[in-house]
Every structure is written in C-alpha cells, then in structure tokens.
TrEMBL record:
Protein name: DUF1269 domain-containing protein
UniProt superkingdom: Bacteria
C-alpha cells in the first residue's frame, strides 16, 4: 500500500544553532505529549564547509537521517530541496516522519528563516539509504 510509505520531510533553516535546537526541543515535547507520531530529527550546521550533525533527537522511533551527513547531490527532488535549505543558513533542522507529524511541526517550528515541507512516497529505509548515499563525503 502506498500510504504505508508516505513520509513527511521538513527542512528548516536558521540563523543560529541555538534557534534550531530550540525548535527541536519543541518537536520532542510534542512527541512526549503524544501529539505527533514516529519521526527522526537532527540539527545540522557547517564544519569545514561540510554539513555536520550537531544533535540528533534522543531515542528516535525511526532512523531516516544518516549518522554521517556530508555534501552531495540528493537523488530525490524533495530531498534536494530540503538540503538546499539546510546549506543556505548557518544551521538547519531536518525532520522526517509519519504524516501525523504535520500539524504539530507547523506549530513547533517557529524560529526558522525558511521552511521546506515535502511529502515523500518512500519507506524509512529508502529515505535513510538515499540520504546516506547522497550525503556521504
């Protein structure tokens, strides 16, 4: 069933790492309050010209964002647009999850200079694999 593969991908660009971390805390609180479903999230900045994970969410229920986050061209249009947002500013927040995250994230992501939201027809493993391949150094 196609609905089982439906995921939402959010990428938000921030002027500071602290602003991205604050929104990540808000997203984590929504999950603790059981207002959003399964998701994976990470705050990313630049180190030596390459994207680098500053902080991952603790104990995610899914793994969509690869541990190693480097530069490269993303194979999916949606992921390429998300990566473009993340490299535009000093820091970024990327969140991938079930469609149930949409309403909560629209309220939680408040400090971003720009947000890109895309619906992606793929499994968690497919997203993780594609991000890993596309973003390795």
């Amino acid at each position: 069933m196609a609905d089982n593969n439906q995921m939402l991908l959010y990428a938000a660009a921030y002027d500071t790492v602290d602003a991205a971390l604050a929104d990540m805390v808000a997203v984590e609180q929504l999950h603790k309050d059981e207002m959003i479903g399964k998701y994976d999230a990470a705050v990313i900045d630049q180190q030596d010209g390459k994207p680098h994970i500053v902080k991952r969410m603790d104990r995610s229920r899914m793994r969509a964002i690869p541990e190693m986050f480097g530069g490269g061209t993303l194979p999916r249009k949606e992921l390429k647009e998300a990566a473009g947002v993340l490299t535009a500013n000093q820091a970024g927040l990327i969140v991938a999850g079930e469609p149930t995250i949409e309403k909560g994230l629209d309220r939680a992501i408040t400090g971003a200079a720009k947000v890109v939201k895309r619906s992606v027809d793929a499994t968690t493993d497919e997203i993780s694999s594609e991000l890993q391949e596309a973003l390795k150094s």
